[in-house]
Amino acid sequence: MSEPDLRDPEYYLNRELSELAFQERVLHEGMDERNPPLERLRFLAFFTKNTDEFFMKRVGGLKQQIDAGVTETTPDGRTPSQQWEEVLDAAHPLFRRQSEYWQTTLKPTLADEGIAIRTPDELPEADREALRVRFEESILPTLTPLAFDPAHPFPFISNLSLSLAVLSSDESGELTFTRIKIPSNQPRLIAVPGGTDRYVLIEDLIEANLDLLLPDLDIRDVSKFKVTRNAEVRRDEEVAEDLIDMVEEVLEQRRFATVVRLEVDADMPDRSVSILKEQLDVDDREVFYRDGPIDFEDFFELTELDRPDLKPAAWTPRPHPRIGSATGDTQNGSPDIFDEIRRGDVLAQHPYHSFEGTVQRFLDAAANDPDVLAVKAAIYRTASDSKVIQSLIDAADNDKQVAVMVELKARFDEKNNLEWVRQLEEEGIHVAYGTVGLKTHTKTALVVRQEEDGVQLYSHVGTGNYHSGTAKGYSDLGLLTADRDVGLDLTKVFNFFTGPTLDDRFRKLLIAPVTMRERFTEMIRREAEHARAGREARIVVKVNGLEDPSIVEELYQASIAGVEIDLIVRDICRLRPGIEGVSENIAVHSIVGRFLEHARIFYFENGGQPEWYIGSADWMTRNLDHRVEAVTPVEDTGLRRQLRFILEASLCDNRRRWVMHRDGSYEQASPGDEPVQDVQDVLMRATEQALDRGYGPGMAVDSAPTETDLLIEPAVNEDATDSDDGDAADTRGA
To answer: Whole-model pTM above 0.85?
Structure first.
């Protein structure tokens, strides 16, 4: 039998269709009646938010390629034009399902529970009158009707703006098209007077009172529409004189970029649709007809209502048992964080552990500790009211040397990051803006501290952003360590941010774009060699995306060699599992839960000498070749035990886990007659149990959902006693 050509397009799934398949899994959670009603609504809102970004970035990029005449095929054999057509054809039914479920099921369910979205004509006359007064006093003055006729050009329609398309006629009977933009600075959900949870959508309220805005006109039709524009606007960084000016110019260009989707009311008349298509230059495929609300993202507001009976049980991130409270008051029993890190590495797991009590406390301590000499941090995304930034400012005020890398090219966070750059510079802090040709995606911080035995380095290497908001909703990991090799490696990385070159020699860290691809490739090939030699060989990887064709090919080769491989891939996955003679040893899983799975974990069995890693990089070409990324080894046995627990709980999840078939379709795991195992519920319980036990590991991992053969220490020492370092200091987690 001849060896398969592992570069044949038949072995690769399409990146864009794979991402849409993930959005379909998100939509499924919004329609899964095992979720409480407001949780379902939250997923419907996320589906809108996610697909808006998908169209802006991915579909926008495809249109750019088509306009440029690109015909080169992707690893799966599709041209940009073919991908564009297939993506739009796959997307249409998803939006129909969202609308239908809202209209027929979730909207009535919420109304039965006392949360009603009404149209004005469904309300009693007294309520309509009260709303009409509010409209006239507060909303009407903010509206600007823009007519399109021989005397008025077609108005500019901004990205993601919601509008009314009005067809009217005057005494002559001539039809006029008027666009009314729904003001984004007004609440979308208008509470009906009376103190109950009844609402009307602002667009419906405007439509019901158009006679006040457009008097003495014969209104023939009023329809809603929304425009999505391309956000894949770039400039050549090599010729840009100033990175800040370049980013500001890109932000401005996005406002006027190509339209990539037009969403309209299902019953919008042909005349209005034709005007919009012609003026916005959109194809029939790009028009999405919607029943009910066009935009669900504002429904996030309803999910914040104080209705615990309609939501999952609330979760508040807990203190880490080894660090204590967020205040870090050592006089009240909280240990000195630097002493604790030096005693042994700490693994913070968000949102199970509090960001404020771990990462933020680390930075606050660095800012205020008189022995700290320098603080350095790389910021990709952070909160608009960031305490992380304030800690860095405090450090500078306290005469520490402070250097901050702020990535200006973080998509859709450019404006926020520009503002932070200016504030940091006003405080006299040295700020690096980014790197030409690369995005800085590392989640790293370095603290330099003078101690009795010399200068010590304390590092944080994480999988998630320094963002207190997303740390409550994203599942992430962060390693706090006093390992000198890690600290010296980070020193080189931060020197690259401010200096002229990136060193390619590192002691322990895997750094993209210089060593990471090579090292991951070596480790996959090493597993294949172990399997061929009859030694223990296993790979388990948890990432957000697996897109890089070269990594996929290496995994196929490892599977052919006999390596057992489990891939827990949240969304994009090019690899096809279960192909006889190619990937029958590979299983692909995806978890979609209440928290966004965002942690990256890498396990290589290495013939009984296991290696564990965590970090910021996915197995995507952009991460390996076009971003600055950092992945760190996890060497402490106690911390490895916690990582194993996460992987075990993920692989036996029968509530949130999906399993991919060879054709790229997914099937959700079912508990059947077995107890329900939800990985995120398991990790919440393990966090609470660890806290109840007192000082020790961050999670109680002695009651794993299932036993796996993943190794946490060399096989020859499997029965040896763990060291007292790190979280292994309390062996109750063993």
So the answer is: yes
